[in-house]
Amino acid sequence: MLVTVRHILIIDDEDDIREVASLSLEAVAGWKVSTANSASQGIAVAPGLQPDAILMDVMMPGMDGPTAFRAMQQVASIAHIPVILLTAKVQAQDQRRFADLGVAAVLFKPFDPLQLAAQISKALGWPD
Amino acid sequence: MVISIPAPTAVVLLILLLIIGILVGVLVQTRRKSSELRVRLDAARQRQQEDERELTQRSALDTLKDEFVSTVSHELRTPLTSIRGALGLLSSGVFGNLDVKSQNLLRIALTNTDRLIRLINDLLDLERMDSGAAVLQMRRCSLPELVNQAMETMSALADAGQVKLLVSPGAKALMPNVFFDADPDRILQVLTNLFSNAIKFAPASSSVTFEVETPPDELIFRVVDQGRGIPEDQLESIFERFKQVDHPDARAIGGTGLGLAICRSIIQQHGGSIWAQRNVAKGASICIRLPRHQRTYDASVGGAYTASIEVPSIVAAPRPDTVLDTPILICDDNKAKRTLIVTQLRARGHCVLEAGSSDEAIEIAKNRPAQSPVRAILLDLQMSDMKRWEILKLLTRNGSTASIPVVCLSMGAEADDALQSPNALRPTSSPSLLSEDYLFAELSHALLSDRGPGRVLLVEDDLDLANVVLGGFAKTNVLVEHAATLYRAKVLCRERRPDLLILDLTLPDGDGFSLVEWLRSLPELASLPLIVYSGRELEEGDQSKLRLGPTKFLTKARVQSRDLELLVLTMVPQGRGNNKSDPEDRGGQQRSTGLPVS
């Protein structure tokens, strides 16, 4: 069976979460993962990496996820890359605010490490 | 010496004295009264100031609490994400198999982490509800839709416990026509909670049944289980926080002990009641009584970022007979957004079809059977689809689709770029949030508007230009009336509220600004959709003086009448060709489809 190896850029300021999320995607789905520990670092490396999708935390010191998303939309070389926000906020008004931004999807923390890749695929309409 | 005063003069003097006496008396009385009043007024002012201070303090407290809840939610979840993730990966065996003892320890850590996560979610929920921070988003809800959704969510749990989830035959017959005002997300939460409770405590191969009764203006439903029941003395206390029915495996079953407390809070917030009953034969029932109609509709609508837009109660009250076979078609290539809207529409009792492109949307609209046409199209203008602007024209050209109202979503900056036609049509660009309430208000306007052609009032003193514009609409389903003076415009607006106003700024007897000012002063006209069609580019300051409802600014020299026509078509409802609306609607307020712009 041919399995597509996806390349995901994870942007999160929490080292442990970056680690767990990377391992989830690498070990469970066999995907390739790059990481950045801040939004500005993420925006800096994304054009060169050209990942298939960006998984980004919402609350980060400095630039937060929504701001970073809007900034990415202004950069021609990465504006096409789907962005998935990962958030620990579950209140309905937050959820709706994120959905209104125009991101590809919003996933919630805590996530199930065994399901993370499947959730991303489903949100982006990628075949399993 | 005696001064003799003639008798008549004495009488006059006496009367005068008397009048002066009375006047003085009245004056004294008045002064006393007025000083009394002043004292009372001062006291009232003081009370008001105290009230205001208290209110400010309370709202500051509320804000603090909201922030606290939000922060706690984030701060607790972040470490839990790492813990849950690490444990999940270890126990999955992707990094090699573990011996049985380690596996068992990991399983314990994992189940308890999950329990902690649920507990935090439940606690935060309850906190927000009890503090009033959780505002209900009242909608017209369809009971069968909510029950099916809850049952679907719980089906895995039911299968695992070998429990059958049933709807009683009586409920099956009643339910299709049951609509009620409530916050659908919250009621869904109650239903899933009740089902999950019942399933957890139900013995294998028993069943959990959903029952409904519909007394006038009320709704009673019950979730009936065949478990071991609730002791008489605990029927009340199970709704308290952390009170579970005493029985040996209650803890092992893994509830947080907050589920029923949450249900009670939600139901009470809806003005209903919840109670537990022992069944005659076996097990227990949790019963809920809800009012079908909520009077506090408007007050409870609107959240942190939704503007104060009136959401008519019709929002999702499709006539029951038309719900099933006259769908709403949503056209959006963003699947996430589409799914969000579809879910919300379905929760409001609408039948929904989806299209990922303009072509698909037209295909679907054309091929609907005549007895169940598409009722309205929700079109996302932010699609990357080249034809998203063509769709309006294509729909109008086809006889069977010409009368479908179209609601356009978010005309933001992206849409402006897409609008670069040869003579660029330049609407004011301000990225607009797609507010849910706004969306449904617009949708309901569109659904209500199948009662005749849309009415546009053109206020223009240049007769040649007016004729060009009027000519452009000759073949459409839009009726354009013309006023060449400010006076005539006011008369026509008063006579009947137009669906859209096209306004030239210079008029022989005044200007557009004064017309807008006048319209703003009239509640029924203050939110008219407006296209300002002016000879010069307008400064932002001028633009802000000209905004009514959804407002667009066009510059004459830069716009062709074809573009104006297209814009108008997106802003007014297109009447149904074969007008079959009921007379009630016809007499009702004029409604229009607008663009959520600035």
Can you tell me about this structure?
Chain B: The chain crosses the membrane at residues 6-28. The complex is a heterodimer of chains A (128) and B (598). The mean pLDDT of chain A is 89. Chain A has five helices and five strands; from the N terminus they run βαβαβαβαβα. With 128 residues, chain A is of the alpha/beta class. Chain A has helices spanning 15-29, 39-49, 65-73, 92-101, 116-124; strands at residues 7-11, 32-36, 53-57, 83-87, 105-108. Among the domains of chain B are: 64-133, Helix Hairpins, CATH 1.10.287; 139-291, Heat Shock Protein 90 (2-Layer Sandwich). Helices cover 47% and strands 15% of the residues of chain B. In chain B, the strands form five sheets. Chain B has a five-stranded mixed β-sheet. Mean pLDDT of chain B is 74; it is low at 296-324, 410-437 and 574-598. The chains are: A alpha/beta (128), B alpha/beta (598). Chains A and B meet through α1 and α4 of A and α1, α2 and α10 of B.
List the helices and strands and how they pair.
The complex is a heterodimer of chains A (128) and B (598).
Chain A: E1 7-11, H1 15-29, E2 32-36, H2 39-49, E3 53-57, H3 65-73, E4 83-87, H4 92-101, E5 105-108, H5 116-124
Parallel strand pairs in A: 1-2, 1-3, 3-4, 4-5
Chain B: H1 7-92, H2 100-130, E1 139-142, H3 143-160, E2 164-167, H4 169-174, E3 179-182, H5 184-201, E4 207-213, E5 218-224, H6 250-253, H7 259-269, E6 273-278, E7 284-291, H8 297-300, H9 320-323, E8 328-331, H10 335-347, E9 352-355, H11 358-366, E10 376-380, H12 390-397, E11 406-409, H13 413-418, H14 436-448, E12 454-459, H15 463-472, E13 478-483, H16 486-495, E14 500-503, E15 506-507, E16 510-511, H17 512-520, E17 530-534, H18 540-545, E18 551-555, H19 561-571, H20 583-587
Parallel strand pairs in B: 2-4, 8-9, 8-10, 10-11, 12-13, 12-14, 14-17, 17-18
Antiparallel strand pairs in B: 1-3, 4-5, 5-7, 6-7, 15-16
Helix pairs in contact in B: 1-2, 2-7, 3-5, 5-7, 11-12
User: Helical percent range of chain B?
Assistant: 40-55%
Which class do the helix and strand fractions of chain B yield?
A: alpha/beta
Helix and strand string of chain A, N-terminal first?
Answer: EHEHEHEHEH
> What are the low-pLDDT stretches of chain B, counting only 5+ consecutive residues below 50?
296-324, 410-437, 574-598
Q: What topology, given as strand order, has the largest sheet of chain B?
A: 2-4-5-7-6
| Coarse morphology of chain B | extended
Give the total of beta strands of chain B: 18
If interface size is counted as residues with C-beta under 8 Å from the partner's C-beta, which chains form the largest one? A-B, 35 and 38 residues
Low-confidence stretches of chain A: none
Radius of gyration of chain B from CA coordinates: 33 Å
Tally of helical runs of chain A: 5
Shape of chain A: globular
- Describe the sheet with the most strands of chain B: 5 strands, mixed
- Rg of chain A (C-alpha, Å): 13 Å
State the end-to-end distance of chain B: 94 Å
Helix content of chain A: 40-55%
Number of strands of chain A: 5
CATH architecture of chain A: 3-Layer(aba) Sandwich
User: Residue-averaged pLDDT of chain B, rounded?
Assistant: 74
How would you sum up the major sheet of chain A? 5 strands, parallel
User: What proportion of the residues of chain B form beta strands (DSSP E)?
Assistant: 5-15%
Region (Disordered) (chain B): 574-598
Enzyme class (chain B): transferase
InterPro entries (chain B): CheY-like_superfamily (IPR011006), HATPase_C_sf (IPR036890), HATPase_dom (IPR003594), His_kinase_dom (IPR005467), HisK_dim/P_dom (IPR003661), HisK_dim/P_sf (IPR036097), Sig_transdc_His_kin-like_C (IPR004358), Sig_transdc_resp-reg_receiver (IPR001789)
Protein name (chain B): histidine kinase
